[in-house]
Amino acid sequence: MDFISITIILGKILFIMFGVLVLGAAMAVLAERRVSGFIQDRCGPNRVGPGGFFQPFADVVKLMMKEDIVPRQANRFIHDLAPLISITVALSTFAIIPFGNTIELFGRQIKLMIADVDIGILYLLALTSIGVYGVSLAGWSSNNKYSLLGGLRSSAQLISYELSMGLSLIGVIMISGTLRLDQVVLQQTEYWWGVIPKWNVFIQPLGFITFLIASFAETNRLPFDLPEAEPELVGGYHTEYTGMKFGLFFLAEYASVITSSAVTVTLFFGGWHIPFAEQLGLSPLLLGIVQMLAFFTKVYLLVLFFIIVRWTIPRFKYNQLMNIGWKVMLPAAIANFLLTGLAILILQWLGVSI
Fold first, then answer.
1. With b meaning 16 or more CB within 10 Å and e meaning fewer, what string describes 319-335?
2. Is the Cβ–Cβ distance between 59 and 30 less than 8 Å?
3. Which of 44, 83, 116, 333 could form a disulfide linkage to 248, CB 3.0–4.6 angstroms apart?
4. Mean pLDDT, to the nearest integer, of 307-327?
5. Does residue 78 form part of some domain?
6. Residues 211, 267: contact at Cβ < 8 Å?
């Protein structure tokens, strides 16, 4: 690997980590506060900078200046490690997501994704499973009963929804015949009858709904934010966290929302694909840039949907969460891939391509 290849890889890493996830999380915080203010008919942040634009950066400065307080009876090492696990998983998951088509720069074909791995979807599910350790260890290490309950809730929530999330993707894998996310996107760039794009959301609506609901639980967002439920657990797993440690959990949550939205766009909404954009006669480089902008626009709209749901739907009770996970979503996910397999067999028997 030569110097230019290493520079390109580092450039993509820096762009995703800071340009998309860190700066995107700051913008998501501002959007959340402004949207919540609009929904509740009140003013959001409007003092720091034009329209409150610099409010997220002021929050970061405030968190950095706060004292790091650790309970005397806490496990100091695990207490420090837990937020690092959460933020590492949140930032690493985006590595396999193609945020654009292949473009040509410096005489090279550059894939707009950091890591092109053969087991993309399995890598995704594995990392999201590891993320629960950050929350669980934070609750246990704090030596606080409310924090411990929040960590236990997170573990139970993960078991309930990780199964449904994994099973909801089997239909996509069966149709695509691959685990590589860039190939999943490329197969969605085709059309039915030359008009309707073959986005998976049209042929896997049940899988999409199941995956989307599981994503809310995965990111600990309302209506499934039981690990931190303020009215019941004071603050849940991060009750005993202050300063930048709390800020890392905060950043990890919003980075996870952005990543979950990007995964949903990739698997169900055609990723970077724009219907009929290839017929506009744009140069390959310009078309690649437009497709990348289209991808991030789709992600932005889904993040906005996450925010609106948070301020619209009330929190479920714990027993309701378990009932939905085991009695509704799991059977729905199983039925989805069984019906998908049956449909594929029938279409193959009729000689019709999907």
1. eebeebbeeebbebbee
2. no
3. 83
4. 85
5. yes
6. yes
Mean pLDDT of the chain: 86
Tokens of 293: 């902008």
Please tell me the distance from the alpha carbon of residue 96 to that of residue 92, in angstroms, as a whole number.
Answer: 8
Q: Residue 105's beta-bridge partner residues? A: 108
Is the separation of the CB atoms in 28 and 300 below 8 Å? no
The number of distinct structural domains making up the chain is 1
pLDDT at 232 over 80: no
CA angle, residues 170, 166, 271, in degrees to nearest 5: 70
Residue 314's pLDDT is 84
| Rounded Cα–Cα distance for residues 144 and 150 (Å) | 10
d(CA 22, CA 101): 23
Give the residue ranges of DSSP H helices in 241-329.
Answer: 243-268, 284-310, 318-323
Does some domain include residue 37? Answer: no
Residue 175: inside a domain: yes
Average pLDDT over residues 20-27: 88
Of 128-132, 307-311, 313-317, which has the strongest mean pLDDT?
Answer: 307-311
H/E stretch holding 338 reads helix 330-350
269 three-state secondary structure: coil
The pLDDT, as a whole number, for residue 212 is 92
Full-model pTM: 0.91
Q: Is residue 22 part of a domain?
A: no
Closest CA to 99 of 305, 281, 279, 288: 288
48 — phi, psi (to 5°)?
-85, 100
For the chain, the straight-line distance linking the first and the last C-alpha, in angstroms and rounded, comes to 39
pLDDT score at 261:
93
Cis peptide before 223 (omega within 30 of 0): yes
Q: d(Cα 40, Cα 19) in Å, to the nearest integer?
A: 30
pLDDT for 72: 84
Q: Rounded to an integer, what distance in angstroms lies between the CA atom of residue 36 and that of residue 26?
A: 15
Residue 314 is classified by DSSP as P
Banded pLDDT at 354 (limits 50, 70, 90): low
82-86, 221-225, 240-244: the lowest-pLDDT one = 221-225
